[in-house]
Structures are given as C-alpha cells and as structure tokens.
Amino acid sequence: MTIEQPIYLQKIKQDNMSVLLQQIWEHEGISRVELVTLSKLTSGTVTNLTQVLIQLGLIREYATSSSAIGRKRVMLKYNTDNFMIIGIDISRTSYELILTDLAGQVIKSVEGNTVGIHQPAKILDLIVPLIQNMINHASTKGMTVIGLGVSIPGPIDRKVGKLRTPPNFPGWENFPIISTLEKKFGLRVFVEDDARASALAERWYGLGRNVQNSLFITMGMGIGGGVITKGELVEGANGLYGQVGHISLIPNGLLCDCGNRGCWETVGSIPGILRRWSVGDSIDDFFHAVHQEDPHAVQCLKDTISDLESALTTLFNVYDPEIIVLGGRLYPYLAMYMDEIRVRVRERIYPFVRNQLRIEHATFGSSQNAKGAVALVFEQLLTSPLQMLSLENVKEE
Fold this sequence. Notes:
It contains 14 helices and 15 strands. The protein is an alpha/beta fold.
C-alpha cells in the first residue's frame, strides 16, 4: 500500500493537470475562477496546480481589463517561450521537418526528395542531421525540444513502435523507427499513420480545435482517414479504425493491397483515377484533359466524384462527425467541385442533419502531415505533462 499510494496520487495529479491544460488551450486565455467552474476541481487544487504549471514554464499569467472600473483580471494562457516540438513527415517520395513552438507556430522548416530511396537507414541519414540542426537552433533561442513526432504511411504497431506492412513503401516493414530516433537524440518519439496525424493537426491546431467529433480524409496516392471521437483519436482493436480508403464501393471490383476488392482507394486515389482513365500517367495530364472537355476524362471525373459522394455519405452515417475535413494531394484538383459535392451529399443523409453537415478543406495544405506530427507530441504534453518534462516528482506547494 505504501508503494502504490504515491503512484496513484501522482496519476491523479497529472490527470487534473491535463484537465486544466486542455481547458486553457481550448479557451486561449482563462481565469482560475473559470477553470474551477469548467474543471469541477476545487479552487485550492486549481490554484496549486496552475502554480506548478507556471513553474514548469508551460503556462503564464497575463492581465486583462475587466468591466469593473480599472480592475485587471489575471488570466492564464500557454507560454510559448520555453519549449519547442519537431514534426517529421516521411512520405513515399519526400520528407518535411518543421520546428514549432507549443502553439504550433512554425519557426523553421525544411523538406527534401526521397524518390528512388527505399532503405529506411538512408532516408534517416538525410533527416538526422536536419533534426540535430533544429535542436541546436532551439538551444540558441534558450528553448528546449520536448519531443519528436513522426507522420509516416501506416498501418503502425504503436505498442512496439514499428510499421506493419505499409503498401508501396518497401523496406519499412517492422523498422523500429521509435527506438532508432530515441537512441540518437535522447528525446521522446511518437509515431502515427499519416492520415491520423493529419486528423490530430486539425484537432489541436485547426478546424477541430473546438470540435469533439471530426473525420479527416486524405486523398492522394492512397486514401486514409483519422477519426476523432469525444476529442480523442480512435485506434480500434488492431489500429485499423478509420481506414476509410478500404470501404467497398465497387462490388467484385479490383483486388486492393489490403486484400479486399472494390475499395474506394482502387478507384478514388490518384493511381485509381489514372487506371480508370488509362490514357496518361499524370494527374496533371488528367485534369488538363478534363478542362479540355475530353469526353473520356470528363466521364472518369464524374465517376470519381460520384464515388466520393457515396463514400462521404457512408462515412457520415457511420461516424456521425460534426465536421469532415478533406486534404491530401488530390484535394486541390477537386476543390472547384466541392459546392456541388456538398449539395448532393446533403440530399443523401437524414433530413434533420442536412443543415449541420460541414465538409471543409484541410487547414495546413502540403504541411498537414508534418503539423500532425507536431500535434502528436503536443497531445502527449497535454495528457502527460509531468512525464513529458521528466518531472514526475515535482511537488505541489
């Protein structure tokens, strides 16, 4: 009993800190009195824990005018002067690294091409010096990098920190990316499927910041998704929750890499569209043909949009999100058709929710995955601040 009690009390303390940090983030400035009301914690607990968070450098006080004559209210907000996060996006053909503050503001970024490089070790040889440069840059600013987030094609076994069998990503199966980076830099490393990472980018820094239930869909060389329910990313029993590209749209259709037939990805991804068109090998060429009103290309586009509408209707009914966010390399080509798509999807869902349906474009464009990698670390900071800062033994005053 004497051994377990401190651990139990420490967990309660950290859980309470997490509640306060999430409220402060959501409201972007809040008083202790408001925190007591929203968190349902006692005023004494709120006072003690916010003082610890100030001492840790995670939050700070600032004064703002109130309606009372000349009086100032003491408010709390995140302190962006002490800690930084590095987000790493490794795709099948490129990489991007960003260094941000806690608010997600990009301080430094770099990207490069990996076409033709299939060995993880060689790709890391390119990335590792760039990570070190960012760590050094943070140090020169008097700031500390608290963790590395990695967005990478999945699926991923998060328990052991290895990729499973990512399609069209040779050499990466079972590669221990977490332990490799942790050994090199001595920092905490978090890895997530790129689509889910992108969902977290919206959850913490974008359109989903004040939304509890959202769905992110990325469309490019593949189709993936991330589902946020009650503010949390859902994984499922095998880490496959949100694999939206593998819902069946075409009965007895093409065999997909996942083992299913007729998956949305086989017809709605860039390779799927080009296979359907069967004339050129570039998505730019395809949409050029569409704009030239080539009949075959126009029909292929109509079929692609029809499949997208069917998929969105199905996914809305399955996940019941407040907002669906679309991103990925393919989205800019489809953006001009989105008003029509919204109208037709609304016609196909329950009448009482038609006016509530929101389908929006991703917030961070080509850097969505890298921002999601940052969000991975930020989320861990919100949920486990003491572990993230290696200060499990900090005592309350």
